[in-house]
Amino acid sequence: MTVAFTSFPGLPASVAAARRFVVGAVRLCPRSTAPDEVVERAELITSELATNAIRHVRHEVARFQWLHRMEVLIRAM
């Protein structure tokens, strides 16, 4: 299992930084075979979570943290 951890200040610019962090963590994860669609969804979810975290707290005191544990299961049905 690979775990990546970071934190960002509660600023609008941190949304893009959080997206880059998650995409990088997914792509650099050893043995990662995540298809582009999975990476894109992870990026979108990260963007939504980071935006909401910043929107609903006071910007000057907010920090949000990401503990990223990536497990992807792909099954053919």
TrEMBL record:
Organismal lineage: Bacteria, Bacillati, Actinomycetota, Actinomycetes, Streptosporangiales
Protein name in the entry: Histidine kinase/HSP90-like ATPase domain-containing protein
InterPro entries assigned: HATPase_C_sf
